[in-house]
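thought: fold this chain, then report.
action: predict
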Amino acid sequence: MQENLTALTESAGVVGAGGAGFPTHVKLKGKAKTVIINGAECEPLLRVDQQLMAKQAGRLLAALDKITEHLGAEEGVVALKEHYHAAAEALRRELPRYPKLRLHLLGAFYPAGDEQVIVYEVTGRVVPEGGIPMNVGVVVTNVETALNVLDAIDGHPVTEKYVTLTGAVRTPKTVKVPLGITVAEALQMAGGPAVADYRVVNGGPMMGRMVSPESPITKTTKGLIVVPAGHPLLNSLERPLGVSLRQAATACMQCSLCSEVCPRGLLGHRIQPHKLMRLAAYGSMCDPEQTPMNAYLCCGCRLCEYACVMELQPWKLNGNLKGILGGKGIRNSLNNKPEHGAPFREYKRYPVHKLIHQLGLTAYDVDAPLDEAAVPSYDRVTLPLRQNVGAAAEPVVKAGSRVEKGDLLACIPQGQLGANLHASISGTVTAVSDESIVIQT
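observation:
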């Protein structure tokens, strides 16, 4: 079975369930010293992983054990916040069965779930600039992703997604829904929005993005946060780039608070957001050791904005710089390999509860219990062909085809990075385009 784990995971279309959607089978092709289950769930308001760890602790550790054995790793670690008491207790009860596995408790700081941060917290190894955890012998996978790997071993492809429905909804909860239903349909499982004029953030409030209620649930949808129109969070997310750049040019006073809390800078990477902000005002960083390429080291966590007393957005400037450089074919060439984090790093980690207050989300920082009641039946799903890092899947069905839940709809293009796509409901394929496949009952 271990020899086939990579193939089974690839066949099942497993991708990272908590981030950009990196195809999991690729991570399973190498060797590693340490495998980490990322249970930090550091984005405010999200509740999926901590509840899955509490309710499916045995399955999670079984999955981690198989992945650890497959990669020839010395140990497997479940890293989770120390205040996830129910999850930690459930995992501890199961741990004696797995001598190579252990828990690592993290503090309540943001972004504990950044994969480079969690590697350092668990192993003390610093991922090189522009690198990935495998560069230091580590593979990191999300809680739900690991459970999907276990399902793949049993022959079950990815057709459903756990999602936290929270914010300004009538009954915050966490649910499992078919891929391809709309955001609006998912929100109805929480009683729908509690306000008439609202926006929806897909993902966490820090690194999520605003989406239409008619957009589909995908393999990477982790949480849907309903926010009333005019909320401060929207003022940040909707601020035009041009406005952010003008504010950077006129209001940045070079206090360096953004650089003091930058999580990648605190790992020893050569990113200093306050110096990058100088480009907006002076067209220069005024430092011969810094170039616009340093923007590639930004992970986009947005923490710099909430450390800034002027509410400026260095992360948005960095994103713009990365787009400009990438558009000109200039790739990141920074690959410094720090041996340890920055001095006093442990005292500069940003408390998550302070962040929630700054975001104006304290009223929404409530339980969202996992509701395992029967999922409603849906008569239509729209499944995007690209739900992952890499290439879009290539359809293997045509309009008019009859499919059953779990059937293969689209496969990885030959020789490219991608993920298979499967039917999330039984029905008839009614449309196939370059972007998506529609199934109706």
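thought: worth noting. The chain is about 30% helix and 20% strand.
final: tokens above.
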